[in-house]
Amino acid sequence: MKIRITVLLVVFAISSIAAQKVTLLFAGDAMQHQSQITNAFRNGSYDYSSYFEYLQEEISSADIAVVNLEVTLGGPPYTGYPQFSAPDEYARALKNAGFKIFLNANNHILDRGSKGVSRTLQILDSIHVAHTGVFRDEEERSFTYPMIYVCKGIRFAILNYTYGTNGFVVRPPICVNYINRKQISEDIQNARRLGAHIIIANMHWGEEYQMRENSTQSDIANFMVQEGVDLIIGSHPHVVQPSKVMTDFNGIISHVIVYSLGNLISGMIAPNTDGGQIVKIVVEKKPFRPAIIKSAEYTLVFRNKVREGNKVKFSLIPVSMAEKNTANRKPIITLSHDSYQRMMNFAKNARSIFNKYNVGVSEYKPRLSTLLEENDYSKIFSEQPFIAPYFLSCISN
What CATH fold (topology level) applies to the domain 19-389? Predict the structure, then answer.
């Protein structure tokens, strides 16, 4: 009798443990064109504090925020397209905005050669952010890849691959993760052996400036779904592309595919490159049960430019907080007439694609940064604790 009561109490105790929920946030191409570099230089240093003032709350509120760092930190001279080398302050600004994982496997990672790669990884290590996709040598790759990021007891495998490196050939010992099905399959198997509950593949792929995925993207996505990848997040086209969820026979989300996040922030002027989407995904895990994907949503962000004296101020604007509509008669953020028209043109084109082709991924309204109300920008530059590899961990809220 005592044994039965004890067992019942244990079962009740386990069943009463609250499910753990983790919010993941994925942002697109973080770039530094020459116009950005030139205008960030103020009073003898590079200042990016305006970039994320409206989005810092949304980014930092996520348990895991991931960004595609599509530049090298190769040191001076700082250059934009076609061979990027951004100031170190840019990486610090991204970290201080709340991004915890930086993706390096993209077509510009070899812009400054092997030395540029080594210095990029050195700077990211020095500011204590997790990064993946590119490695100093095979030994480092075998020790740190796939990255296992643990948050609230849920183990996430973070994979990252690129279609190419603009014709630059990687020189040993540097390792770059290229899209190779055999290698990807092996990495997925290793992620399973390491006990990953959720496997995320961040793919640098697709055709630039095309707002629909191509057949290669679809084929690779289907391959990864069959291999057991849960979340597939795309970048590179510099414009947004559709997203979709896949469900099992119980109607539970089994996979999420985001073909392209578009740009996070850049100096690009081609149509539809002045904005992008941030995708938020919630994962839940109950004791002794598999992790499940609860939801997938997107929000649109627009790169605004405002002239201040002889400089141009760049900032990211959440579209839903600046647009005028029946639900938002008094926008929280006010733009000039020209900026507003450009923002709404971007939003119209993006929503037209999403409304037609998205499956199960709807728009949400992000948090407005409380820093604007408090007028306390010191919080943007607060340091975050770092836990060294091999297993990385988020800081629970």
Answer: Purple Acid Phosphatase; chain A, domain 2 (3.60.21)
